[in-house]
Structures are given as structure tokens and as C-alpha cells.
Design brief:
The complex is a heterodimer of chains A (470) and B (289). With 470 residues, chain A is of the alpha/beta class. Helix content of chain A is 33%, strand content 17%. Chain B folds into 3 domains: 88 residues, Beta Barrel (Elongation Factor Tu (Ef-tu), domain 3), CATH 2.40.30; 118 residues, 3-Layer(aba) Sandwich (Rossmann fold); 53 residues, no CATH class. Chain B contains 9 helices and 16 strands. Chain B has a 7-stranded antiparallel β-sheet. In chain B, strands 11-10-9-8-12-13-16 form a 7-stranded mixed β-sheet, with helices on both faces. A two-stranded antiparallel sheet of chain B has the order 14-15. Classes of the chains: A alpha/beta (470), B alpha/beta (289).
């Protein structure tokens, strides 16, 4: 049988419909489609795809199980190395990881590995829940700081090895960026809640409303009898551009905008307690996944027009390919090679009490062209003199990254951080403090869910090695 | 869930509650704040810690009913529970090296100023307190301030109680008379703090202001609480939740902070009315049942 050169499409909500609701965009494969897609896998010997996965999911093996129709078997293979299969199938940038290295991809489109992973995870979650029993305790206690992808992965791996794990979470709901950052239409919160419940079944305790560095310090955690700590506290303060007008009303960091909508449920139309500006014309500054999430959230909140303003070209745009495609289909207006120079504000010189004073009424941008490659290897964007123009907007969302949260570094003696504030770790995730490990955005600055999971996994193995030897 | 162990109405719209939160009670120092949610659907609001009882594991906060969330909070009775209560957040008020201090509080800001005055009194500093209110029916914590102040001046805007005028009047008199304070600390509405700062400036007196901008997470993640400082090194963006809430008054851009504070004014007023009506209807139902 000839190989289908194209990946099987995943059904999704119609762009014109979904642009106005928060339901999940991509609908997942049906069983028949999954079987057909699995049949495209060549099951090649050298398995290049596995090396492309930060948590080394045994990809050809799980796809082989799908071919046999043994979906639970496929799930167990994924779950043996990944704590969050239903999450990864949805948010991983497969095109730059497993699928980029797929042998089939040299000639045709690669196997839809992410779509198959999602199918398997959703199939498993749809079955009558088989409660996992906590494994036999090995008597060691480990604390995890932060319940985002790094922390959940580290907790899951350690709990399966018999460690008594407690996760300390600063916010009121566990999940970290999976609940405050990534919107419902891309990752339904019920899926995250389910993954957290799965960890609880394994005996993991989750303590919300505990801010490490404030409520408790790392040293106090050790005093409480924990023998090792993993810090997965995530990204911290949002970066701003330091251009005039960034404190006007109507300028949000993407963190704030998405937190209001996702975690605080401001997106709902039943008068939520937490407000957010809805409607109008919106400019989102940045080209990453967070920028796409913010732009598409703005659209769903009723914006008439949403721009993505990005200083480089489509080629350098770092967001996941599927998100960019989805955003375009929904009508997001990409203004590439444009860089903001000032947020413009309304000011009524005749009436200092005018309630509109201090609100956004435009974004001044300058056109850019690509010059010589910079340190990152990408061509450096250079402003074209005299090319300034104004976009007519009333909300501006800045999505240009974050810097690590300073709370833990400020309250933990002997914890080394780099120039940007990221915690310094060795290849095993160990920090400059004995028994303190770290991973995820707290170490690298803003990165991906899967790289944070990879770091959580590495640290769990190191913690196991360290405590087993004790 | 966090139990309200004691509740005391200070004024019809100002309430003091003590909440069981042992980890917070162990740590909180004057000048720090907590964030709470009343119920599962609630928003996160920051409130300054008014006092702690570590033995009992309780944290006291005082709030004024200004919006939907504080209205719902005010409806909670002793023995009932709050959904979330997290802290202590922000940095404690700097007390080191301060021997003579003037604490200037305005309105419900006095609830924040009081533990600060108490702390200075405890460490042996000479404390002058100036507290101001709109009118007599809003005066709170007078006895408490009296107990921890070497000198207490109470002002009302309309003269309905004690001296008429705003807090800058006696402050200016003291400074004109040659009083030297190691620090003036002011806590209250932004407009008041702006004018207290301008008054201090005429005398080159050092001043600390306690900022309470809109927050969401309160842990240094969302950036909503940013404010602009005009420092010798130029303009700086700071975050009240992790860099503050106390700042050098001379550096704070008050006009920007005032504008940002109004961001959700209309929405909040609408929500407040909505919640008031709901609660009223519920009370009536209960009364008729």
C-alpha cells in the first residue's frame, strides 16, 4: 500500500465560529483516522523521533500499539516516560521536535505524532477511570515548588518511585502556566485538573496558597523533614519594552491579560468578579505562543480587530506552527517587521477629570528590515528611518517574555543565579545548594512546556540517585 | 479554606476580621499584605495585615466596603470560611535606624498605618501619628493609635470630629515649627499621599509612601501593579508586590498611579450594585422563610 504523503487532518471548529467561543479549537482524531495515521509510521530502526523528544517518549512503540488497536497499551508506553500525555499532545511544538526528525518527513509530511499522542491520551481519559494505587513508600520526603509542567513531572516521577511528595503552589489552583497562561480553547482546564488528580492518586499532596520565599523558605522546608527540594517556580515578572506610554490604562502584560481571562475566568459572560477590558481594537506585541494565545483570547473576548505586531518576519516567528495557522484562519492581522516605539494615550487638556485621560488610543510603530544575523543566528531587525506610523488601538498587550521570579533567590542563601536571574544548575538539575534542584522557566527563562517537563524529569532522576545513595 | 475566627464592625462600612492562617501568622510583619478570595468564583484582592497572633495562628485584616468583593467579604460571619488566604506578600516596612517617626494615615489606610505605628512604638521610636477621615462616622482605631503614639492628631475633612482639615495641615505646622523626623510614613488614598509628599518636600523631609495598586497574583507574575519611579538614575518601572509596597515618596509618579487605579472603576461600581442587590434579596428571602 502506498504511503499517504500527507498527515491526516485533525478536525477543528470552524474558524468563524470558534473565534467567538472559548471551546477547544482542535477536536482530535476519530479512531479510524488514528489507525490510518499510525499506519504511516515506518517503525524505522534508528528512531530519530525519540531523540527529538525532551522526555524521550518511546514513539514508534506507542504507535505500534495503536496499529494493533491496543490504545491502553499505547497510553501506558507514553505514560512510562511522560507525566502529562494529554497536555503534551496539545501544546508541544512537535514540528521542531519529534516530527522534525521523522524519517517519513524527509520525503513526505512527517507522522502526526502529536495528534496520535493526543488521541491515545484522550481515549485513556474517556475510559472508566482506573484509580492508580500509590506505590510502596520508600520513606523519603521530597518537596516541589510550583505545580507547573516542571513540578508536576518531577512530582509524578518521584511518586512512582515511592517518594512522599508535597507540591507547594503559590496560586489558588494547581497547574501553573497550564492554568493561568494557556487558554481553555487550546488546553481545556478539565484536562489539567485530571492530570493533577492522577498525581494525587499516586499519593502526591498539593498545598495551594503557599508562596515559597514568603510563606515558607527553602530552609524551612528542609526543617520540616523534606530531604530534597525541586524548584520549578516558573517565569516571573513580565518584560516590558521600556517605551513611552506602557503604564497607560489599557496596556497589559500578556501574563496579566491571560491570568485574568484563564485563571480568574474573566472570559465568562456571567459577570465574573475579575474584570478585563473586552472588545475594541487590540495590538499584541510579540511572536511567541503567548502572543498567539493573547491575540486569540482578545478576539474571543469580542475585539473588533486584533493585530500581532512582531519586529522580525514570519520566518523567525517562534510560535508553534499550528497556533499561527489557527490565528490566521481566525482573522488575526499579522503586522510583521513592525516594532512599537510608543503607546499613545488620550489626554484632554481642557479637563483633567475627563475619565478617558490616561487611556490608550494608539500604538506608534516603526517599520523594520532584516540585516546581518545576530547572536541568536537570526537576522537582526533594523528600523527603517522615517517609517513610523500609528495603529488605531485601545488595548495593547505586551508578550515579549518574562524574567525569573526573584522571591526564591532573595530568600535562599547560597543559591546561585545567572545575570538574568535564572537559577544556575548542572546537567542533573542540581543548584549551588546541596539537595536543591531546579528546572523549567525558573532556570531557562521563558521556554516551552515540554522543555520544562524534560527538566523536571532529569531532576527527578538526580534526586532519586542522591537520596538512594544517602 | 480559612476560618474567620473573629469579626468586629468598626464602622458601618469598615470591618475587622481575624482569619485562621497559621503559616501567614508566623511570618507577617507590619507593612506586608495578604491576598484573599472570598469564594470559588471570587477575585483576588490584596489587603494589608493589620496584626497577627502567632500563638493562635490568626491574621487580622481591616477592610472598607468599596466593591463587590469587599461587600461579599463583609457578609461573611464569624465561624464562616474564606476560600483562599495567602501571604505574607511584599516587603515589611523598613524600621532600622528610625528613632523619630511621623505616621500619616488617611481613611481605611489607617488600618495599615496602625500596625506600622505599633511596630515603631515597640522598638522604642518616638511616634507622632496624624490620622484623617472624611467625617466623624468614618473615624476608626483612634484608641489603638493613642496607645502606640507619643502624640496623636485626629483630623476630619468636614470638622465633624476633632480638628477640621486634612492631614497635611498639622504636618506642615509641625515641620514649620522645626520638628525633625527620621522618616514620615504615609498610608492612605493616593491623592492624600501625593499631597503629604509635596508637603514634606517643602522641608526636605524623608518620606515613605505605601502603595496599594490593583493586583492579580501579587507574587511577581502578572505585572499589573507596576508603577513608575523617577529616580536619579532615570525612570524605573517597579512592581509594588515584590519591590514594595513601600517606596520613596519623592520618586513615585502619583498621577500615573491615580490614573491606573481607575482602570476598572465603572465595572467595579456596576458589580458592587449587582452584588448588593443579590445579597439584599438573599437576606430578605431568609427573613421571610
Amino acid at each position: 500500500m502506498a504511503i499517504d504523503p500527507k498527515k491526516h487532518e485533525m478536525p477543528s471548529q470552524d474558524p468563524m465560529v470558534r473565534a467567538h467561543n472559548f471551546n477547544e479549537v482542535a477536536l482530535g482524531y476519530e479512531e479510524a483516522t488514528a489507525l490510518a495515521e499510525a499506519a504511516r509510521c515506518l517503525n524505522c530502526k534508528n528512531q530519530p523521533c525519540v531523540a527529538g523528544c525532551p522526555v524521550n517518549v518511546h514513539i514508534p512503540e506507542f504507535i505500534a500499539k495503536i496499529k494493533e488497536g491496543d490504545f491502553e497499551g499505547a497510553y501506558q508506553i507514553i505514560a512510562s516516560t511522560s507525566s502529562l500525555p494529554a497536555v503534551c499532545g496539545r501544546v508541544c511544538p512537535q514540528e521542531t521536535q519529534c516530527e522534525e526528525l521523522c524519517t517519513l518527513g524527509k520525503k513526505f509530511e512527517p507522522v502526526g505524532i502529536g495528534r496520535l499522542e493526543r488521541f491515545v491520551a484522550d481515549w485513556h481519559n474517556d475510559q472508566e477511570a482506573l484509580k492508580a494505587n500509590p506505590p510502596k513508600s520508600n520513606g523519603h520526603k521530597v518537596a516541589i515548588v510550583g505545580s507547573g509542567p516542571a513540578g508536576l513531572t518531577c512530582a509524578g516521577d518521584l511518586a512512582r518511585l515511592g517518594y512522599k511528595v508535597t507540591i507547594f503552589e503559590a496560586l489558588h489552583t494547581p497547574g501553573g502556566v497550564l492554568v493561568y497562561g494557556i487558554p481553555e480553547f487550546r488546553l481545556p482546564k478539565a484536562i489539567v485538573a485530571r492530570e493533577v488528580e492522577g498525581l494525587k492518586d499516586l499519593g502526591v499532596d498539593v498545598e495551594t496558597n503557599v508562596v515559597i520565599g514568603k510563606t515558607l523558605t527553602i530552609d524551612e522546608i528542609f526543617d520540616m523533614g523534606y530531604e530534597a527540594v525541586f524548584v520549578g517556580s516558573g517565569a516571573g515578572l513580565p518584560s516590558f519594552m521600556h517605551i513611552p506610554g506602557e503604564s497607560l490604562r489599557g496596556v497589559y502584560s500578556a501574563n496579566e491579560y491571560l491570568t485574568r481571562s484563564n485563571l480568574m475566568k474573566a472570559f465568562r459572560d456571567d459577570d465574573p468578579d475579575t474584570p478585563i477590558m473586552k472588545g475594541g481594537k487590540v495590538a499584541v506585541v510579540g511572536g511567541g505562543n503567548v502572543a498567539m494565545d493573547a491575540a486569540r483570547t482578545a478576539l474571543r473576548l469580542g475585539a473588533e480587530h486584533v493585530y500581532i505586531v512582531y519586529r522580525r518576519s514570519m520566518e523567525e516567528l517562534p510560535a508553534r506552527a499550528e497556533e499561527v495557522e489557527h490565528a490566521k484562519e481566525e482573522g488575526i492581522d499579522f503586522r510583521l517587521l513592525n516594532n512599537p516605539v510608543e503607546v499613545l494615550g488620550y489626554h484632554n487638556p481642557d479637563d483633567p477629570r475627563d475619565p478617558k485621560n490616561g487611556t490608550v488610543n494608539g500604538l506608534r510603530c516603526i517599520k523594520m528590515e532584516l540585516g546581518e544575523p545576530d547572536a541568536s543566528g537570526r537576522r537582526r531587525p533594523v528600523p527603517i528611518e522615517g517609517s513610523e506610523f500609528d495603529l488605531d488601538v485601545d488595548t495593547v498587550i505586551i508578550a515579549i517574555g518574562t524574567s525569573p521570579n526573584p522571591l526564591i533567590k532573595n530568600t535562599t542563601k547560597g543559591l546561585e543565579v545567572n545575570r538574568k536571574g535564572g537559577i544556575v544548575v548542572n546537567e542533573g538539575g542540581l543548584t549551588s545548594r546541596e539537595a536543591v534542584y531546579a528546572g523549567g522557566d525558573a532556570v531557562t527563562g521563558a521556554a516551552t512546556v515540554i522543555s520544562a517537563m524534560g527538566a523536571g524529569k532529569v531532576a527527578a532522576a538526580s534526586i532519586d540517585e542522591y537520596l538512594s545513595a544517602k | 479554606m480559612y476560618k474567620i475566627v473573629r469579626r468586629r464592625s468598626l464602622k458601618p462600612t469598615v470591618t475587622q476580621i481575624e482569619v485562621e492562617a497559621p503559616l501567614v501568622a508566623n511570618k507577617a510583619k507590619p507593612g506586608q499584605f495578604i491576598i484573599l478570595r472570598v469564594d470559588e468564583e471570587g477575585e483576588r484582592i490584596p489587603l494589608t495585615v493589620a496584626g497577627v497572633n502567632p500563638d493562635e495562628g490568626t491574621v487580622m485584616v481591616i477592610f472598607q466596603v468599596v466593591g463587590a468583593t469587599t461587600e461579599k467579604l463583609n457578609h461573611k460571619k464569624e465561624g464562616e470560611y474564606l476560600q483562599d488566604f495567602v501571604g505574607p506578600l511584599g516587603n515589611p516596612t523598613e524600621t532600622e535606624g528610625i528613632k523619630r517617626v511621623c505616621v500619616v494615615g488617611g481613611g481605611v489606610g489607617c488600618a495599615i498605618a496602625w500596625p506600622v505605628a505599633k511596630e515603631f512604638h515597640r522598638i522604642g521610636a518616638e511616634v507622632t501619628s496624624i490620622i484623617g477621615f472624611r467625617s466623624e462616622d468614618l473615624v476608626i482605631l483612634e484608641e489603638e493609635f493613642d496607645a502606640c503614639s507619643d502624640r496623636l492628631i485626629v483630623m476630619t475633612d468636614d470638622g465633624s470630629y476633632k480638628r477640621e482639615g486634612n492631614v497635611t495641615v498639622p504636618l506642615r505646622e509641625l515641620l514649620e515649627a522645626g520638628e525633625k523626623f527620621d522618616m514620615i510614613i504615609t498610608i492612605g488614598p493616593l491623592v492624600m499621599m501625593k499631597f503629604v509628599t509635596l508637603t514634606a518636600k517643602d522641608f526636605d523631609a524623608p518620606i515613605t509612601v505605601s502603595m496599594s495598586p490593583i493586583m492579580v497574583d501579587g507574587t511577581g507574575m502578572c505585572g499589573c501593579c507596576r508603577l513608575t519611579l523617577h529616580t536619579e538614575e532615570g525612570e524605573q518601572m517597579k512592581f509594588a508586590c515584590v519591590d514594595g509596597p513601600d517606596f520613596n515618596g519623592y520618586e513615585v509618579d502619583f498621577d500615573e498611579a491615580i490614573a491606573r487605579g481607575r482602570t476598572y472603576f465603572d465595572y467595579e461600581r456596576k458589580q458592587h450594585d449587582h452584588v448588593c442587590n443579590l445579597l439584599k434579596a438573599a437576606d430578605e428571602l431568609k427573613a421571610n422563610a
